[in-house]
Amino acid sequence: MLSIELESLVASCFQRAREMAQAFLTVEHLLLALVDAESLQELWRDLALDTNALKELLTTTIDQSAPKLSERVEVEPTLGFQRVLQRAIFHVQAAGRTSVEARDALVAIFSEKHSHAVFILAQLQITRLDLVNYVSHGLKPSRRKSSASNTQASEQEFREDLAEVENADVRVRSVATAVPKLFVSYCHVDKGALDRLLVHLRPLERAKLLSCWSDTRIRVGDKWRSEIKQNIEDAAIAILLVSADFLASDFIAANELPPLLVAAEARGLRVLPVILKPCGFSRDRVLSSFQAVNDPSVPMLGLTHIEQEAVYDRIASEVAAELRIRKIDVS
């Protein structure tokens, strides 16, 4: 999961792009936000970096290169922006940590070696190797040029990064060209709600406008953990069927919610919580940041059958609206 600081910085990227009517969120937007990260101020001081000059340079680059919003409803993260956050998450998970910090995102930016951001950092003699040493070992970065051995090590790291970037790019492109996928996260005691939800979404599936996925589609012999992980990565929309059982599920808390919440921040995954029963949804700081389809104080359990059907129809309408935003013709 993104740290509170990084989550706030990513949100500020979106806010700036909206205010400037910029259609896409780029790596340069992220670097501009990271310049102000409180946790990176010591690093900038050790580098004797003029942060005001860097921000001015990045601002000019963004304003000159970013396309303006026309009829777009929302700012769209570029593949490069998404890959940076995905890479930071991968490295943090490999290191056995649970929180992605600002410094992790900064290191991951170097994977986008053809970006303006990396070009600007290179001009300032800020290298990936120096940052890795600083983040991993606490070594203060040197302003001296890298030795031949350091250069070779850095080039090897870049080759490894490039291979990961290309793989990530293939995954993202394949998702973009396929029918949008909807992932349903639910607790098995609430399967009746899942079944009724899928009935209301069936017309969109029949029209091949949407592909709905839940763990009921896992077949005997499938590697279920990898199946869930892959379908979360592919999803454009996620519906959370929230109840006390859902919130109490260790599996959901450890395996489904973290990647879904990261995807919401990193690539604009639409998250639609549906409150099935009285529960602690409103007390959950992270989950309650997403607007629920129905009023949390009036969960579906207390509604009449007709009122419940109206909520399911509202969910289907929200999904159809999201497909229209993503330029899928649902008329």
Describe the structure.
The protein has 331 residues and is of the alpha/beta class. It folds into two domains: 172 residues, Double Clp-N motif; 147 residues, Rossmann fold (3-Layer(aba) Sandwich), CATH 3.40.50.10140. The chain is 57% helix and 8% strand. The chain is built from 14 helices and six strands. The protein has a four-stranded parallel β-sheet with strand order 4-3-5-6, with helices on both faces. It has a two-stranded parallel sheet with strand order 1-2. Helix 10 links the parallel strand 3 and strand 4. Helix 2 runs antiparallel to helix 4, helix 5 packs across helix 6 and helix 10 packs across helix 14. The longest helix has 30 residues. The chain is elongated and about 65 Å long.
- Helix fraction bin: 55-70%
Number of helices: 14
The span between the termini is 37 Å
Would you tell me which CATH topology of the largest domain applies?
Answer: Double Clp-N motif
Instruction: State the secondary-structure class.
Output: alpha/beta
The average pLDDT value, as a whole number, equals 81
What's a concise summary of this model?
By secondary structure, the protein is α/β, with parallel strands linked by helices. Strand 3, helix 10 and strand 4 form a beta-alpha-beta unit. The chain folds into two domains: 172 residues, Clp, N-terminal domain (Double Clp-N motif, Orthogonal Bundle); 147 residues, Rossmann fold (3-Layer(aba) Sandwich), CATH 3.40.50.10140.
